[in-house]
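pinned: reference chain
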Amino acid sequence: MEFVKPRPTGKGPADWFNGDVWFDVIHAGQEPSRIRANMVRFAPGARTAWHHHAVGQTLHITAGTALIGTRDGVVYEAHPGETVTCPPGEEHWHGATEDRFMQHLALWDGTAPDDDRPETTWLEHVTDEQYDAERTRSHNHSHSHSR
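pinned: its structure tokens
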């Protein structure tokens, strides 16, 4: 057993985020483990750029209201205690509402040693129009649009 020395909190780079985003790396697994776990804090209005994960991503909301956008223009709201999974290859973004901080635990797997895909592929920034799209609380269906 090992108590891991915490890393300093990191600032989310401007290439990957709009607004102020901070993250704490909780776990960055070494082979054979490839699990990644970050606690991510978004200032009001902050959000990721569009991105996708080679092996998918899970978001567990711990504070505030998370907005999670998909390429078909749907923006989902998720609240503390809710967990959302994004399948491998699905382009999405996530962030805070305009008026409140949001925090989530982000979980994803790194790619296998024989897989040359990046674990996360970062794309263009989310536009204000995409961020301001109508929001839904519908959880009645799974949602996947892989490319």
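why pinned: DSSP finds one helix and 14 strands in the chain. The helical segments are 128-131.
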